[in-house]
Amino acid sequence: MEEAQGKWICGFWRRIGALFIDTIVLGVLGYVVGLFLEDIFVQLGGWGRLIGFAVSITYFGVMNSSLSNGQTIGKRILNIKVVDSSNSTISLPKSFLRYSFLAVPFSLNGAQITNEALLSYLMYPLSFIIFGGLFSIFYLYTFNRATRQSLHDLAVDTYVVNTEISPEELPSVWKPHLVVVAGLFITAALVPVFTSDLAKSEPFKGLLATQEAINSNESVKYAGVTEGSTTFTSSDSGTTTTTYVNTQAFLYKNNVDDSDIAKQLAQVIVKTYPESLNKNLIQVTLTYGYDIGIASKWNSHNHQFNPQELNSSE
């Protein structure tokens, strides 16, 4: 629940509200720019998120600094701002550094990381930053009620405060919170120890090989492959389970309705992943669009095939 009225330290919901407003502002900006630069954004693929990162770190870095009195548009509307422990607005470099601790884990979490990176030692620092950072941010936002500092605030010793309330003596962070955060980062760093062997075993190893084969198709920019099952229950037919292999392929051109491309990819699955012949269907989701972090636009179409029919047609 929100803290009682009259506290200098900004409460949870007002802070989230300001972030929501700022997200809308950046989203509208990204949408408008996307109307003119859609083709460029599509060709950038996963690298397009760097555009959103650059825009957002510039926006929050400048607006949360002393250049804008520590207030983004959202913070200005809700009468809150970023200050240091002496109730002074922070410098531009410090503001950029502050936002980096928040933005980097979120940006990397949505990035298209290659299989080579996922299976290499690079996964250890990536897991440390992404999962350690994300879980720590959410934990501190939710449970650090005394100072309401999240990871990026603790890193540079800043606070988000109500501008209409007189400064008060700053409380201290409850030390067990810091222990929990340290534990989250340590756990995140150790996760690849357990997942690396899993990725080298079946069916993951076979699916990764199939994914690489699909990625080699000239129409495909990037693809992911999964397998699973769905269960449907009705009073007439009882319970039926459908097993499937699914690939979502991101295309260079807006050919999501092209059944020939979809059939080519489905045949690649049958050829490189023999276990697919034991499934009820192969689903190929062709997708075209972009994601620049602050805005995205996608167009998708699902194509379904019978594995046995594909096998007999080769």
From TrEMBL:
It comes from the Bacteria. This is RDD family protein. The lineage of its organism: Bacteria, Pseudomonadati, Pseudomonadota, Gammaproteobacteria, Alteromonadales. Keywords: Cell membrane, Membrane, Transmembrane, Transmembrane helix. The keyword Cell membrane applies. The chain crosses the membrane at residues 12-34, 40-62, 121-141. It is found in: Cell membrane. Residues 11-155 form the RDD domain. It is a multi-pass membrane protein. InterPro entries: Pra-immunoreactive (IPR051791), RDD (IPR010432). Pfam families: RDD. GO terms for cellular component: plasma membrane.
